[in-house]
Each structure stands twice: as C-alpha cells, then as structure tokens.
Amino acid sequence: MAVDDGDRGQQPESHALNRRKPNALVRRASVAHRRASRLDPVVRGLLWSAAAGLLFTVLNTMMRSLAMELHPFQTQFLRYFFSLVVMMPLVIRAGIATYRPVKISGHFTRGGVHTLGLVLWFAALPHITIADTTALSFTGPIFIMLGAAWFFGERMRWDRWVAAIIGFAGVLIVVAPKLTGVGGGWSLLMLASSPVFAASFLLTKALTRYEKPGVIVVWQSITITLMSLPLALPFWQAPTMFQWFIFLLCGILGASAHYCLTRSFLAADISATQSVKFLELVWASLLGWLVFTETPSRTTLIGGVVICAATLWIARREARGSVRAPG
Description:
Elements (H helix, E strand, L loop, with lengths): L1 H36 L3 H27 L4 H23 L9 H21 L5 H8 L2 H12 L6 H22 L4 H24 L5 H20 L8 H27 L12 H13 L5 H27 L3
C-alpha cells in the first residue's frame, strides 16, 4: 500500500512533466515557424524546393528498386495509391469539405498531363542509373522557365538564364556520352518526359492561384491513381510484404515531396526556384553508390561540380536581389 501511495503521490508530477513536454515542442515549432516566416520569399522558395528535391531523390531510389522487381506501370499506380492512403487520415480529420477543389477540371487536367510524363519516366526508370535519371530531369527547368515567361509573364532576369544555361551545360557533360551508347534509347525516353513534367508543374503553379497546397497534393494523388490503374491491371503481380512496406514509405515521401514543391511555387516565382534542383544530382550520385553500388562516372562528377557552382551562384544572387528590392 505504501508503494501505491508513493506512486499516487508522484502521478501529478509525472503528469505535469508529460504536459510540459508537448508544450515545449509546440513552442519550439512555433519559434521555428516564426523565424522561417521572416525569411525572404525567394529564400523560402529555394529551401522548399531543395527539400522537395532531396525527398524526390530518395523516393526515386526506392522506386527504381521496385520497378526492377515489378512492372513499371504497377509500380507507378501503387506509388500514388499509397500517397493517397497516407493522406486520407489527414483529409478525414480536417473534413472532406476542406479538400473540396475550387475547379476540379484543373486538377484532372494536371493529373492527366502528369500521368503521361510518369508513363514515359517509369518505362525508362529500370534501365538507367539514378544519377543519370536525375541529370536528365534537369532539362525540366529550361522548359519551366520558358513556360513561366510565356504563360505567366514572369520576369526572366539575365542571371536566372545564365544559371539555367550553365546548369544545363553540366547536364550535357553528364549525359552526352551515354546518349550514343547502349541504352541510349531509354535515355531519350526519359528525356522526353521532361517537357511533359514541366507542363505539369506549370499547371501546378496556375492552381496555386486559387487552390491551397494541401488540396493540390491530395487531388494529384486522386487523379493519377485513377488514371494509372487501367495501365497497371494487365501487368499485375502480387507484391511481397516487404514491397508493400516500401510502397507505404514511398507514399509518405511522395506526399511530402509534392507538398514541399507546391509550397515552393506558392512562396516565389517558379523560375526562381528551379536552379536549386540541380543539387539533386549530388544526392542521386550518393544514393546510387550506396544502394546500387553505381559508381558515378568522371563526366557525372565534372558535370555535378558545374551544376553545383551554378546553383550556389544563383542562390546568392536571388538572396541579394531580394534584399535590395523595395518593400
């Protein structure tokens, strides 16, 4: 009984400690959020874009492993299906009305374009290294910058163009020797997905004008899941328990990455956030070496240095330009 009384005497103190811990975490999160909100919009956009790139690189590494074991179209469907599964508790908790789109047609248009890009991308994915896959995707910013200037009237400063051109030159250093060798056809197929994804990202930017980031991410998963299912069914095979677990992780990574990407588009001009995408080559080379023992070639390393130099230069230019800008 004495032990019980002692335990009862300690309960209020224990409960107080338990209450203080969540409160401390909430306060720290609030402080971090306030500090982040004080950053310049362009800097916030670059940080969101960099976070999205890192998450996408980890995701692509997992997807390549799965696409080498299952059919690419089945892998494509399950990747977006699990993104939807991961987000459903949040949707239910907030209420379905919270995620009701303003214009559903815009989401289905964006989903259809992105699905087309995914078909090209997943078909080539098992046949190309992660570093080369990432490098080929770097042609996307060129198409995005052109589209942003053409459709949204975004001001294309000379330094953004210089950074994009230097970064693209780095990409050519990486991929040019491979386009004429074995597997060159797969590289060209992967390359063909870049302008399609660029169109999808431009549609995402347009959606941010009247839709919340969470709504865009949820409806992307819904539309792509629906459009990918008919492609997956003819090639279906039962995944293992481990594969189901990896798909679940991919769902979490994919939803998080697209949320970060959407936030980057909301924070700054889409063209201003594209230069940081070139850092993904560094992360892809490291993961390819760790997971698939794919040693980056000399051209990949040289191109990576050129790309990183362009990224760091434009990031500093964007930050300084924002500080000088009035208001």
